[in-house]
Each structure stands twice: as C-alpha cells, then as structure tokens.
Predict the structure of Triosephosphate isomerase.
Amino acid sequence: MFILVNLKTYPCDPVAVAEAVRDVDESTDVARVAVAPQATHLERVAETGAETWAQHVDPIDYGSNTGHTLAETVADAGAVGTLINHSERRLKLADVDGAVEAADRAGLETVVCANNPAQIGAAAALEPDAVAVEPPELIGTGTPVSQADPEIVEGAVAAAANVDSDVSVLCGAGISTGDDVVAAGELGSEGVLLASGVAKADDPTAALSDLVDPL
Amino acid sequence: MFILVNLKTYPCDPVAVAEAVRDVDESTDVARVAVAPQATHLERVAETGAETWAQHVDPIDYGSNTGHTLAETVADAGAVGTLINHSERRLKLADVDGAVEAADRAGLETVVCANNPAQIGAAAALEPDAVAVEPPELIGTGTPVSQADPEIVEGAVAAAANVDSDVSVLCGAGISTGDDVVAAGELGSEGVLLASGVAKADDPTAALSDLVDPL
Amino acid sequence: MFILVNLKTYPCDPVAVAEAVRDVDESTDVARVAVAPQATHLERVAETGAETWAQHVDPIDYGSNTGHTLAETVADAGAVGTLINHSERRLKLADVDGAVEAADRAGLETVVCANNPAQIGAAAALEPDAVAVEPPELIGTGTPVSQADPEIVEGAVAAAANVDSDVSVLCGAGISTGDDVVAAGELGSEGVLLASGVAKADDPTAALSDLVDPL
Amino acid sequence: MFILVNLKTYPCDPVAVAEAVRDVDESTDVARVAVAPQATHLERVAETGAETWAQHVDPIDYGSNTGHTLAETVADAGAVGTLINHSERRLKLADVDGAVEAADRAGLETVVCANNPAQIGAAAALEPDAVAVEPPELIGTGTPVSQADPEIVEGAVAAAANVDSDVSVLCGAGISTGDDVVAAGELGSEGVLLASGVAKADDPTAALSDLVDPL
C-alpha cells in the first residue's frame, strides 16, 4: 500500500513528520510511505530522506508565471511526485490535463484527485500514474470512506479500470487507523491519502506505525 | 450530421439566424441543424421553432446562485441541449461533472467541449451525450480542424470510444464550408460546431445551405 | 429608498414578482423598486414595465465569449442596471473594473457588491453608481444586517464617502421587514437588496407593500 | 527608491540573483533592493541575507488548504513582504482583501498590484503598504511604463493618494535601465517592479548596479 501524508497548511513541524515518514517507510516492506509538505518546505523535507511529494503543480512552463508552482522547481527541490486537483485546490479540466503534462515533463509521479467515480474515470483518461477518490463531505470527519461509502471506492476502481487499467486507484477522507487502510485495500485501493491523523499526531511515528501494522 | 451554430456574443440578430437554422433544418434530411444563442435570447430564439441550445449551464440547483445559469431555466425557455466547458468558458473538472448532472436533471442534451483527445476521453467519462473537440488555436481562423489537424479528430473519436462508445464526437474550429463538414464526417465526427461563418454571414440561410449541400 | 429584489435562481414566477414590483413602485413616492431576474428572464420581466436589473454582466465586449453575459445584450433586453460582484458571483478585481466599464458602455446603472467596509471602499474606487455591503454570513438568515451588524453599514457608508462621495451605498442580507429598511436608511444606506423575503412570498405585492409602508 | 526583482518562474539561479540583490542593496544608500523568488526557493534565498519577498500569498489561515501558500509559512521562511494580485496571479476582490489581511497577520509587508489608476484606488482602499501599477500590455516588452504611458503612473499616484495617502505607489512593466527608474520616481513612484532585466541578466550585479547608479 502507498500511504501519502498530506500536510496541507497545518501548523505542524514538516521535518518532524517527514522523519517519521522516512523511519516508518524504512522499517516496513508492506507499505511505501511519503509526505506532501507545503511548497516552501519541499527542500527541507526532501533533505530528511523521506519520499517527498508536492501538493500541487500548475499547468505552466518556465516563464512569466508570478505566484505559480512550476513542476521543474518542485522536482529540483527533491519531490518525486505531486498531487493534482485536490478537492481543496480544484482545477479546470484543461488545467488538470496541463498539470499532468507539466509533472510528466519534470519526471514527477502524478496522483489526480477527484470526488466520485465519474470524475475518477475522467481523471484516469488524462493518464496520470494514479487517481485518488476523496468524497469532500468525508474529509476531516474521522469517518473512513472505506466504511462510510465503500461503493464509491469500488466504483472508482471500476471507473479507472474501464478507462486505463494502468492507472492505480488510491482513496482518502477520514482514514485514521490501520484497519481503515486494510479495508481500503480490500476494496481495490492501492493506497491512501492521509492528513490530520498523522500531521497533527503528538507522535507521528507511532501514528504511522499503527497504520502500517495491520498490513 | 449535427450542425450547431454558436452565436457567442456576436453582434448578430439571433432571431434571423434562428429562422435560417429552422428553415435549413426543415429543408434537409441529411443534417440536424441547431442554434446556441446567448442566455438572454433563448426564449425568443426558441419561439422561432429552431432547435435551440444553451451555450453554458452552471453546476447548480434552484437556490441562492445570483448571476448563474440554471439548467431548468434554460430548458423552460425552450432549449433542448447545452454546451458545457466551451474553450471560452472552461470549468473545473468537478463543475463539468456537476453541469452534466444539472443538464441531465433538466432533460437537456449535453455536449462537453475539450481541447485534445486526452481531455475528450475525460469528458466522455462524465457521460454526456456528446463531446466536441476544438483545438483553441484554430478557433476563428478559417482553417478547418479537419484539414489542419485531422489526427486530433481521429484521436478524439478513438479516445471517446475507448471510454464510452455511446458518446458521440463532434468537432469544431475553423469549419466554414460544406467540404469541411464532409471531411469532419469522414474522420468519424458525427457533427460540427460552427460560429462566425454562419452568425456573421450576410445571408445565414445561404451560408447554412452551402454547408449542408455536399452531405 | 431604492429596493432591489434579487430573484437569484429561485423557483419563483419572475413575471408575477415583476408585476408586484411594478405595482408597488407605481403606488409609492417614497421608494424606487426594481427586480433582478435571471438573464434568461430579462426580456419577459422588462415587458411587464417593472424596472429591470441584471444579476451580473461579464467584463467583455461583442465577440468570441461563449457562455458569457454581455452588457449590451442585457440593456437591449430592457434592463437599466446590473449587480456586479455579488457574493454568489465574485469576480477578480480586474474583472469588477472591466464589468463596471462594460455596463457603463451599455448605459447600465451599476451596483458593485462587497463584504465589508474595506472592500466597499475598493468597489467605490471603480466608480460605479452605487455599492452594496452584504455580509455573506447574514445572507438568507432573516437577521437584518442593520440589526446584527449596524457598524458594518456605517463603516461602508464612511468608506465609500472617503473614496468617492458620488457613490451611493446600499445594504443587504437578512432584510425582510419595513422596519429593517427604515433602520438601514437611518444608518446612511440609500437602498436595500432583498431576495427570498419577496421572491418566495405567497403574495409578493403584500410583502413589498409591507416593506415600503413604514418609509 | 524600492527595487523589487520578481523572479517569476524564470530558469534563473535564485541564489545567485539574491546575492546580487544583497550586494547592491548593501552598496547603496539611495535604493532598497529586494528579490521575490518562487515559494519553493524562499528559504534558500532568505539565507543569503537578501531582502526576500513572496510572489503571492493566499487568503487563508492554518488548516485544510492543500496546495495553497500560507502567509505564516512564507514569513517563517524569511520573507518580509509579498506581492498580491500580480497580473499573472489575479485574485477576486474579496481574496485580495483576504490576502492583505493574511499578510498583515503574519507581519509581511504588502504590495497589491493592479492594471490602471481605478484599480489602484481600489487596491489602496484595502490598506496595503503599497500598490503597484503595471499595465499588462507593457510587461516584458522592454518599453518602460514611465515612457510609454506616464499618465498611468501619475494617475495611479493620484488615485492612491485620494483613497489613502499612507499607501506608497510603485510601478512596473518594461523597466530595464536606471533612467527608467529615475523617470518612474519623477512621476511620483516610490519604487519599481523588475523581472527579466535582472533575473535573466548574465551578470545580475552589473544589471542592478546600472539601475541604481543614476539615482
């Protein structure tokens, strides 16, 4: 299972979480664990040795793009992948396409987020490495999508497979325990997006270990 | 072939163009001809008897949506279909999905526009009635997409078929003659989007007749 | 006092409300009453003789603007004014400026909406005919801004006067009774924006008469 | 004069430019020179000792804001100020207001950009530390705004003074020589925004020295 810890703009210490991510990733063979800090923290987080992802890249190239996030800059900072179209950073359809292209050009792995199976099919058609289904209404609730809405995960897996069987499916929203991760896997998900459960934990290493333990 | 004349915000007489659309549509068995006026003109255009389409609907329901276009209002005005995500009115991926749903709810036929085959596949995954590929760089050039970039039309047809074989493919950009329409059909397109060639013609009926004639 | 009834995308009969607006407007010397229907309803509403406003215009000119609202089209349909930047249809700063210019060009009166006194000052600097302060958190609550947050109305009046003393100030959010309208006037407001209280009333004429009565 | 070098997403070495900015700033009493790198480069640039600015901050607080730029993060990275509403990163009016508030909260100095005197007045009403007028059509042309359109700079100075005399006015677009900077000052501008002229120079220190020399 791929476990991606999204730090959003939480008031956490990104380096401390990154070190926990790195340590748990190195301690297990059953999960690949990565962290997505804010753009400003990418370099420091990558220096920890943790697998580092961006939270967003813009559909742009080098040039006159004040205030935007360039895929090449993110990659040079040490990121190996990027989220695109997270529900907190939704993009126009043409810009999701452009952002996937920009990330590919910079050698970044891509996970395009979407709300439901129809949009997951659409996201898969843009040929990212993976898609992630996150029902917005469950984000931050503590109620895992795998329990509250298992059909949406299965539907997302089917929708992506119908369009492009090479695209992996992740899921997110409300996942906080290892059992949630196991349940997500049983529904066909190859990974999960996590946020507050780890980012806000007093002991991120313990929180991550608990998540990985039942795998 | 389906021929949809998009009046954009051109300074044309929408009723005169609509009457031409109606007359040519009634005079031929080989084409279905419709017109997409501005929202403010929908009622008057529909009253001509021409098949009337909206240029856009928003992903909303009845309620507190000042300044938005409600699918039900468009349908009540006499429209039978709507464009969604035209390159001049691009939407977020989640909102393309929401607009298709809103249009379905109101009984409107849907054509989702996109720029290239990858986005056409994405659009098709949202289950509209049709998708339309329009390379933005050719819009308004007079150089037909079927001639300038035939691969993009064939690619769009293949991309849509891969995702959902029930979704028709239209194409647009630069189409101004009957030969262009024929060429579009030969590439697998089931219709075309037209704009200035008819909307700005001195004699819209003659312009449309010329388009339909070689079919 | 200027009373503008915003029909949003409510499931009301726009012509029936417009007739009530017209009748109450004609029956009183102490208020000017107008109605802002959806773009698709502008022509039919204007035909009632009611003073008709648009809910939104785009910062565009005639041309290739599929799915946009052109100020000239709105004016030709019989509208005499337009809201701009309503909290349900917020625009970029440059586009508020462009929309005011477009409305001026088409001879439309302009009311630019904003959330707080600072933004009201900003809106006034763009030289609309009026600005309207509507705290988003009070919209639709039934708690009038004049009662819940009188300082915001007084602050808006002061902010607009500091920038351009020719710009009138309206207020909105939660206004449903004649006493609310009187209170708004006492705080320096020259008008009010109303919505559900009239649009959803069983008897819009009675609802409007009650509003005007205490003036 | 304040000289702010905006690195946009240019393919330059941000640290090398920052060192030039620092050195020239330290070598002169007549100018204050600062640099605005991409968010990902803020920490490394600030470590050079150069005065560091962000290119953008979002109107957000700590929390669930994936892919956004938090003012506090920017400040913690060593930035002392931020551009807001650059013409390449235009914001909604309410979000310009929110971004100024967010920057104030984090102790960042603020420069709100706008296209013309009317928008400069609007920007000034939001109480930033400064506003910057940059006619979009001149950006990147090499034709300085002070020469191509001196009225726009004088108009901006007057518009800002009318609203809030505490707000400084900068100008930008096409400035590449020391004479351009002098001319901007003579029109009432207290600083300039620069980009490619320094960021893409073979010798940024020489380019900056030439700019500062005639002051």
User: Anything to note?
Assistant: Chain A has a mean pLDDT of 94. Residues 14-27 of chain A form the longest helix (14 residues). The first strand of chain A starts at residue 2 and ends at 6.
